[in-house]
Amino acid sequence: MIRRFALFAFAALCGVAAAYGADNVPAALDFEMKTLSGQSVKLADKYQGKVVLLVNVASECGLTPQYEQLQELHKKYAAQGLSIVGVPANEFGKQEPGTNEEIATFCKSNYGVEFDMLSKVVVKGDDICPLYDYLTNKSKFPGPIGWNFEKFLIGRNGDVVARFAPRVKPDAPEVVSAIEAELAKK
User: What is the helix (H) or strand (E) element at residue 47, kind and residue range?
Assistant: First the structure.
């Protein structure tokens, strides 16, 4: 009986591994999130094969002007395969108190944001969303999010390849060179 169970368990695990290999979904993109408008989006469906700069954002932070640099990166590199993805969060000084609709209006009217924005989530603490749990606990760059505008760079292969502190501006040489290096990989 135990042997049959062990064989069944092994076969099931092999099936899971085969299914994963068939889909080939990178761990950093194996999440379903919602957009600011409430639509579900599977990150792998939208971003697999692209370079992604994932940034937890806030509207009432001293670093909020980084939206301008993020938008400039979007305009400069989107056609080459870069996706900027803003993820609003309210864990740091309650600096993102707005609803998803208010956040969308703020970003468009103040910074002309055209890059993707996801729904507000928790990026730190007990109720952390699964994506940020992965980024901060299971990626190559673990550690809690320090503040608003922390940046994770995900390569075309779906691996997290870099992490930048909140005060490192999106157009800083180290960010731009990391983005360009990943975009050069086809």
Answer: helix 43-47
